[in-house]
Specification:
This protein has two domains: 169 residues, Rossmann fold, CATH 3.40.50; 183 residues, Dehydroquinate synthase-like - alpha domain (Dehydroquinate synthase-like, alpha domain, Up-down Bundle). Helix content is 46%, strand content 11%. Helix 8 runs antiparallel to helix 9. The radius of gyration is 19 Å and the shape is globular. The mean pLDDT is 93.
């Protein structure tokens, strides 16, 4: 089955089968953000981003477009790499002072998730923990436009914000269809400025999204072609994207978006369940953690003779080997010991990963025993 997904550069929003988020795609498309906000009825726009995006000049380009459209804008540019409730609270204070009628999330998944978190609290009140789960926002939310600057999380296609509790470090998935962006702007020019190490970490995260959604227990007729399309774009472009111009960068950006659409329509699995405690406990970058764990999870899930990854490859061992090749080519770590994770921490990590919501959707059932075995193999 070959996915029939055709997104071409253009100034008008396009729709992808299986996604409720229209897309404007192409080099320079960030300059469309002002007109897009105006078309959604906005007059006051809160732009949520991070210091690196401002340094790269992307914030100035977005603000120029907003100003040209006659909009009043305010910027919050302190989003953290792993957004916490404190980050959201700080951004919320800016929103309450400014009174926006639309929010733009410009950056990686952290900026977009922070923007969604602000949207929850600004429109519905309370704390982020009140929205942990699905469909807990009782009031309408502001329209949001998402502009990714990395080919990674696919957050621009999703209705969930991943926010960590600043006190407990628990990563909360807060989702509601009202939080889904009204529009995603995919501009390869923004991805071209990403440092190589960040591009590697975010790119392997997108690949993990394609792989895990293709096999999870919630995969379906909508998500499967999205997972396949994402894998085809990402696997073929990951090692050539840095410095290779718009073709490879566009493929990575589109692939990450399709993988995000697949997540929205299905779920993830044990690679993300085992990666999240590595980030929370040891501060390991999410993409690095999930990339390291992914080949081991693929081999575990197929070690009983089943192949839950048949949509991507009819040989799961070959798929796992290919993932190892991609990690090696990107100079990403492949063993836990190489990133200073002590062996004595593995039982604790197993307990923590067993509590992750994505573990429940792994194609092969996993408990603490199975998760410990995966960690030991990865060690």
């Amino acid at each position: 089955m070959v996915p029939m997904i055709d997104i071409r550069p253009g100034s008008n929003p396009q729709r992808i089968a299986g996604s409720d988020v229209p897309v404007i795609f192409g080099p320079g498309s960030i300059c469309r953000v002002g007109a897009a906000c105006r078309e959604l009825g906005a007059s006051r726009v809160l732009l949520v981003t991070d210091p690196g995006i401002r340094s790269a000049g992307h914030v100035d380009r977005a603000l120029a477009s907003l100003q040209h459209a006659g909009l009043i804008a305010r910027t919050y540019d302190h989003a953290d790499p792993n957004p916490t409730t404190e980050t959201v609270d700080h951004a919320l204070a800016v929103a309450r002072e400014f009174h926006p009628d639309l929010i733009v999330g410009l950056g990686g998944g952290s900026s977009m998730d922070t923007a969604k978190g602000v949207n929850f609290l600004y429109t519905n009140g309370g704390r982020m923990s009140d929205y942990w789960g699905t469909g807990k926002a009782g009031l309408p939310m502001l329209p949001m436009i998402a502009i990714p600057t990395t080919a990674g999380t696919g957050s621009e296609a999703q209705s969930y914000a991943l926010i960590s509790d600043a006190a407990t470090h628990a990563k909360m998935a807060c989702g509601d269809k009202k939080a889904l962006p009204r529009l995603a702007i995919l501009d390869p020019d923004l991805v071209a400025t990403v440092p190589p190490a960040t591009a590697a970490a975010t790119g392997i995260d997108a690949i993990a999204h394609a792989v895990e959604t293709s096999a999870c227990t919630k995969r379906n007729d909508l998500s499967r072609p999205l997972s396949q399309g994402a894998w085809q774009l990402l696997e073929s472009s990951f090692m050539t994207a840095p410095g290779m111009g718009h073709s490879a960068l566009s493929s990575m950006l589109l692939g990450a978006h399709l993988a995000g659409c697949a997540i929205e329509n299905s779920m993830l699995g044990a690679a993300h369940a085992t990666a999240n405690p590595l980030t929370a406990r040891f501060g390991i970058t999410h993409g690095v953690a999930v990339g390291l764990m992914l080949p081991h999870v693929v081999r575990f899930n197929s070690s009983d003779g089943e192949n839950p990854y048949s949509d991507l490859d009819d040989d799961p061992n070959r798929l796992a080997d290919r993932l190892d090749q991609l990690l090696a080519a990107a100079r990403l770590p492949r063993r836990l010991r190489d990133i200073q994770v002590p062996e004595q921490a593995l039982p604790e990590l197993s307990r923590l990963s067993g509590r992750q919501w994505t573990a429940a959707f792994n194609p092969r059932p996993v408990g603490e025993k199975e998760l410990l075995a995966i960690y030991q193999t990865a060690f």
